[in-house]
Write a structure and sequence with these properties.
about 425 residues, Spo0b-associated Gtp-binding Protein, Chain: A, Rossmann fold, GMP Synthetase, Chain A, domain 3, 3 domains, 6-stranded mixed sheet, 9 helices
């Protein structure tokens, strides 16, 4: 089974919590705090693997989670970093963020890596909060939460040359003859339901990868048949070999078919329409009138297509010349990585702790990730920690914003489930 798209959920590891600890050794007076920091959470990393060919594995497992960082401990012991989670994907996999539909990365080379979810930072232990006036802090930071997101994986076949053309014109037969690939071949339309790849290794030329791209028919660019599904696989090819049936045995007109397929390429992406093409007039062994090929060639010349070969995949007529022409063109066209427009590129948001303030009668409600993290860090029932709590609110600008909103002596400030009275 060939699977070329998948949607999975990834979550990096949460950071470990900082430790609250004090030295309590017999001969060490005034030992002081010694709580260590928590370890960072593990990252989720996608790796291009040249041994993978499909995204089939992701149809069975759709959730991936990296390891959490361990908590800090006494004696200034730092927590261990969580293990990174490496996920292997086939070369040619494009990663998108589902929420924004922006492209995160194109993994097209062996060993390419991309971190799709970065682990949360470990929280600071209480030893980090000592000051000349606060020498025994009884609070520490919790670990930062890891990132989580849905991502889509889209496999775009890595091939130098793409075989295009209507069904049953002989693309699969051509592929099987010039490579060691073994595609399914039969004398009916839509025999090929998945892209097939093979390596052309002809004496006297540099080898290259060629792919039989099925499903490209009239209306493919709008979703007819399986065309839209497979058009993406042409995007990486450097040249196209456009196969037509010149025999006219099935009543098809080779020139009309050529025009229709090119229209679909143009509608899907004008860059594909501009890609260099070699036209392979196949089934020449069954051609009853030689003038048919000459007329076809002349019509193409009027449109600017001069690389036209009369071939027969069944009898191997003209195949060496066709492959040598393809190899020659490839030698002058450099391999390019996938072009990603800046508007389509995913830019990760900087992780920030924010808050909002709203007023309901004489109560001022402060909410947000900043509040959640602050309340998780301190014990509001301890006087010293409460002083630190108030200092953080002041430094963050919360108290100033409350003043600007007109808070008065005796009004109530609520942070989640914690309430206290405002005093000037």
């Amino acid at each position: 089974m060939f699977v070329d798209t998948a949607r999975i959920f990834v979550k990096s590891g949460d950071g470990g919590d900082g430790a609250i600890s004090f030295r309590r050794e017999k001969y060490v007076p005034l030992g002081g705090p010694d709580g260590g920091d928590g370890g960072d959470g593990g990252d989720v990393i996608l790796v291009a693997d040249d041994n993978s060919t499909t995204l089939l594995d992701f149809t069975y497992k759709r959730k991936y989670k990296a390891e959490r960082g361990t908590n800090g401990a006494g004696s200034k012991c730092f927590g261990k970093k969580g293990k990174d989670l490496y996920i292997k994907v086939p070369m040619g996999t494009v990663i998108r963020d589902v929420n924004t539909n922006k492209i995160m990365m194109d993994l097209s080379h062996p060993g390419d890596k991309y971190t799709v979810a970065k682990g949360g930072k470990g929280g600071k232990g209480n030893v980090r909060f000592t000051t000349p006036t606060r020498q025994a802090p009884e609070f520490a930071e919790p670990g930062m939460p890891g990132e989580e997101r849905y991502i889509s994986l889209e496999l775009k076949v890595l091939a130098d040359v793409g075989l295009i053309g209507f069904p049953n014109v002989g693309k699969s037969t051509l592929l099987s003859v010039v490579t060691k690939a073994t595609p399914k071949i039969a004398n009916y339309h839509f025999t090929t339901l998945n892209p097939n790849l093979g390596v052309v290794d002809v004496p006297g030329i540099n080898s290259f990868v060629i792919a039989d791209i099925p499903g490209i028919i009239e209306g493919a660019s709008t979703g007819t048949g399986l065309g839209l599904k497979f058009l993406r696989h042409i995007e990486r090819t450097r040249i196209l070999i456009h196969v037509v049936d010149i025999s006219q045995i099935e009543g098809r007109d080779a020139f009309s078919d050529f025009i229709k397929i090119n229209e679909e390429l143009k509608k899907y992406d004008v860059k594909l329409w501009d890609r260099p093409q070699i036209i392979a007039a196949n089934k020449a062994d069954m051609l009853y009138d030689e003038t048919v090929f000459e007329e076809f060639k002349n019509k193409l010349a009027e449109l600017g297509y001069d690389k036209v070969f009369k071939i027969s995949a069944a009898t191997k007529q003209g195949l060496n010349e066709l492959m040598k022409e393809a190899a020659g063109m490839l030698s002058n066209i450099p391999v390019k990585d996938m072009e990603i427009d800046e508007a389509d590129r995913f830019v990760p948001e900087e992780k920030r702790f924010t808050y909002t303030v709203k007023k309901e009668e004489n109560t001022y409600i402060v909410e947000g990730s900043f509040v959640d993290r602050l309340l998780a860090s301190v014990n509001v029932n301890d006087y010293n920690e409460l002083r630190y709590f108030y200092k953080v609110l002041k430094n963050k600008g919360v108290m100033e914003e409350l003043t600007n909103m007109g808070i008065k002596d005796g009004d109530i400030i609520r942070l989640n489930d914690f309430e206290f009275e405002y005093l000037l």
